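hey so u asked for the seq, here:
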Amino acid sequence: MQGVADFLAANRSGGRYLVSVARGMSSFGAVSMVASLEAYYISGFPPIWWQLMRIPVAVVIVLSGWVYYRFRQTRSFTLAQFYEKRYSKFTRIYAGIVAWIAGIVNFGIFPAVASRFFIYFCDLGSYPLSVGGLEIDLVFASVMLATLAIALLYTCLGGQITVMVTDCAQGVFTGVLFVILAFYLLHRFAWTEVTASLLTAPAGHSMVNPYDTARV
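ran it, structure tokens below
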């Protein structure tokens, strides 16, 4: 990393495969997995059908270069910089402030959800601590601080270069792991067991079983 272009855009040196895998992996995290599982728990598998319907449309849009091609032609590093070229400096400052506020809120919610996931998944428990009348869960604070520190460390070390490379490496590893996991689950559980599990969800909490059958 030798300059601003390297930090923000990896000097635009990312190839299609590196960028594609890194982009796909950057949108997958603990908070995304928790949200997906919650959606499937409430509504079953119909949302997956709509997601699959969206894939061909997205492929056509991406291959056509719509929006992406023209934006890359401007050589802008951020959307705020593009807004200055297209509109005014005031618009750039306003967009930058909105993006900054959204990022601060994002880094308050996403790591919190991810930390809760790791705590419950690893059964780390809790260690409440009172500091000046304020109750703080020491385990939760430690896990959240660790996740934020790791993300901040490799981002500051190499900017977008390290972000893309680490995301790509993670995507290759998890891609192979997901295939193995999918075959294992298909071998381990029958489809009748899956549907039976969905039907046992509490009444009123699942669109698959929205009513209390005992009352009906």
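Residues 4-199 form one domain. Confidence is low (pLDDT under 50) at residues 212-216.
lmk if thats what u needed
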